[in-house]
Amino acid sequence: MPRGGPGPLNNFSSLSVASTFIKSPLSESIVLLAIHPFDAQADGELNLSIDDYVVVREMGPNGWSGGECKGMAGWFPSAYIERQEKHQ
What we know:
mainly beta
């Protein structure tokens, strides 16, 4: 399981934690909403606040996703984000 704190966007692709598990790059990025706060505990993780919009770039089978939020990039628990229902 990746552990790490947020980093600059250009460091996302070089995160060493990314190579510790099989990842599933998405064919295109998706924007999801953070439904729980997440405080990064180690290098390579991404802080999330409730209602943050997160650009998800890849999802790992171990329950972690990689993406970007507020100009930072890193890993976060997949269960902390969800699709936002469109309101009309």
